[in-house]
Fold this sequence. Notes:
Mean pLDDT: 80
Radius of gyration: 26 Å
Oligomer: single chain
Number of helices: 3
Number of domains: 2
Low-confidence stretches: 1-31
Amino acid sequence: xxxxxxxxxxxxxxxxxxxxxxxxxxxxxxxxxxxxxxxxxxxxxxxxxxxxxxxxxxxxxxxxxxxxxxxxxxxxxxxxxxxxxxxxxxxxxxxxxxxxxxxxxxxxxxxxxxxxxxxxxxxxxxxxxxxxxxxxxxxxxxxxxxxxxxxxxxxxxxxxxxxxxxxxxxxxxxxxxxxxxxxxxxxxxxxxxxxxxxxxxxxxxxxxxxxxxxxxxxxxxxxxxxxxxxxxxxxxxxxxxxxxxxxxxxxx
Length: 252
């Protein structure tokens, strides 16, 4: 009986150590700050969008294309996007780009780079995949804000867009922005969405209202995957502990 207790104590100590090491592997995976990753969710009220744009044209966001169409030029004839309600509220997901240098898809589209470290949001940018087509209520013309990226300047977050023929103006501004970095060095960001002063450098959108809340924005980090080797290590340890316990019972 003494032999069983002695070995049980050693087995328990080994188990605690092994579980501690296993837990450490789980909690310290990628614990240092790294380039921002995840998915951004943008919610827009098209009625508010229309009211913020001056004139009687009734501009609204008509269609959305996701990351699977990053190389697709957006025109009035482009299909495959999601049709959005002219007066309703919609939500779309903009994947954070993993490329660290901008990818050019001809003159019409760019996949913006992500160069911002979650530990230093005052430098670099966050590239976002996705494209919109804006149209007036009567149709016949369009604007194509696409290939977005976020930058923080003097404490202010702005969402820039690339649009062929119009450069890269800041389209949206985050008001009441809130940001945090978790234990894995991943950035979370949220705020209310408004137009910026630069939005209306576009010829068809002059002197738009910056006082109308258009919607909300939130960036959620990707879940940190646990490497397969860690799971194999953990399951192997549990198997060895179970086998050793069975042998001790036999010897007792």
